[in-house]
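Troubleshooting: if your tokenizer reports a length mismatch, compare your output against this known-good record of 378 residues.
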Amino acid sequence: MNTQPDMPPSTSPSPSGAERPDGASVRLGALVPLTRPGWAEAGRHLLAGLDLAVREVNDTGGIDGRPLELLVRDTAADPERAAAAVDELAGLGVAAVAGEYHSVVARAAAARADALGVPFLCSSAVLDALTEEPTERVARLAPAQSHGWRLYADFLLGAGRHRIAVATQPSAYWASGTRILRDRLAPFGGSVVELDANALTPEALCDALVGHGATALLLLVGHPEPAVPIVRAVRKDRRLADVLIGAPAGQPEFAEWAEALGGDGAGIPFLRYLPEHLGPLGERVGRELRERLGGAPSFVAFEGWDTVTVLAAILRSHGTDRATVAASWPHVAVEGTRGTIRFSRAPGIGVRQWIWAPVQVADRDPAEPGRFRTLRTG
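Known-good structure output:
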């Protein structure tokens, strides 16, 4: 893995991107949040998956005998920084750009990659409108937000939770999620009230939950602040003992959540993009990821592995010319850790999309917070 931006003076990218006659490595750019305010733990898992897959590609001959090289750039959850990184990576001759976790950041990266003619395979971001207009240069592994969050709304209805409060902060991602939930719940008599987590203290938010008669509180906020203080306040408030806390964006998946909240962080349903049971490939990759991470890999780590594996298959079969890579999305059929990956068009989605990665609603078992329970699949 190469995290440095420098390039030997004697080597320059060809107009097509990564084809160089000197037999140099085939370069992939990787966008990953590795520092705050980015969700660094998610970034660490994503990078572990990306890097493991690159090593496995190189152990099996690389790309037609040329090593695959990963050029990693830290986005720190900053859209402008991500767009600048795409500019830099394009100049370094990458065949494609991959990765990113935060939806708003991925949107900026996708726009810049599309403008530069660089293929971008988005690993983890779910915002439906990943691009302003339909494009052939961008594809995505993660399911669209509307798909996963509708399943989450169905879970709430099935659990008898109709009066939903969302603690939210300004963000296109949170606003989109709130709209999806409201649209899905309304035909069944459900309602969604928005509580401004920036304006309300955790204690004032608890008072608002009582006043609205909410039966569930969803955390559409940053982690660890203000998510962790809100959970602690709700758990302490006896008036809210029957209120379900939920985190559809997946915060409880990660070890930092359990370390910060202990037992208070259990029993909080979230979305994760895994099958109920992994197949042999997923089990094997999971063991390798666990060894690298020193703990259980999240779905984000599997997304990283799948991303590089798809791109390597394209580069081996179709070559490293950027235009050819982008034209190859419809022809992909690659066995990933969570199923066979194919890209097609979904209504309302402007990029080539895997329809769909498996989706679960899961939580940490209150009796054993280190163990996950699957509550619903889709």
